[in-house]
Amino acid sequence: MSTIEKQAYDRNRYLKKKEDFIERDRKRRLLNPQDGKRRATNWAKNHPRALNIIQSRCQQMLKLEVLGKYSNDTFRCTNCNEDRLDCLTIDHINNDGQEHRKAIGSVNMYRWLRKNNYPNGFQVLCMNCQWVKKAENQRSRRASSKLLRRRLLIEDLINSRYTP
Ligand SMILES: [Zn+2]
Q1: Cα distance between residue 79 and residue 129, in whole Å
Q2: Which of 1, 19, 103, 164 is paired with 69 by a 20 to 30 Å CA distance?
Q3: How many whole angstroms from 142 Cα to the centroid of ligand 1?
Q4: Torsion angle, CA of 28/29/30/34, rounded to 10 degrees?
Q5: How far is the CA of 129 from the centre of ligand 1 (A)?
Q6: Which whole number is the average pLDDT over 115-131?
Q7: How far is the CA of 147 from the centre of ligand 1 (A)?
Q8: Could you tell me the distance, in angstroms and rounded to a whole number, from the CA of residue 88 to the centre of ligand 1?
């Protein structure tokens, strides 16, 4: 029997007994619920490259889903309309990303957004726009702290001049 004939034979045999096989697997899972998990773990250990590919595809699908939700399925940067998926990211609108990441711990942001039913306060930005936003924030923060220092200095001067 050639390889092709063998494959056709196996396929026919499977199709004839498909329901039996499904029933057998279902019973096996019911009898030993941990078995599936153990087999999956074993499989993952023995197929690291395949696992890697599956995980990265799942991650891509998840990213697409989340970007779609936050861009009304336009998949474009809110600011400049960039549409190359590789440079699109999710941005914290109120610049509270650091505190937010600290609060939720080391979980995948895309997964967190999906699990929490896509809360408000996020938008799709490209890396360029995100970088520019960050730089502008730093500049304005520096400027306001400089202003604050100047004001405190002036208050000090006024106080020292007018203390009796
Ligand atoms: Zn942009």
Answers
A1: 7
A2: 103
A3: 24
A4: 120
A5: 4
A6: 96
A7: 31
A8: 8
- C-alpha of residue 57 to centroid of ligand 1, in Å: 25
Sequence-separated (6 or more) residues with CB below 8 Å from residue 85: 63, 64, 67, 75
Q: How far apart are CA 75 and CA 66, in angstroms?
A: 10
Give the residue numbers spanning the domain of 51: 47-161
Question: Tokens standing for 149?
Answer: 């220092």
Separation between Cα atoms, residue 77 and residue 84, nearest integer Å: 9
164: pLDDT strictly greater than 80: no
- Residues 82, 19 share a domain: no
**pTM metric for this prediction:** 0.65
Residues 6 and 65 in one domain: no
Residues 42 and 54 reside in one and the same domain: no
Centre of ligand 1 from the C-alpha of residue 71, in Å: 12
Q: What is the pLDDT of residue 162?
A: 65
Query: How many A from CA of 76 to the centre of ligand 1?
Result: 8
Ligand 1 centroid to Cα of residue 123, in Å, is: 11
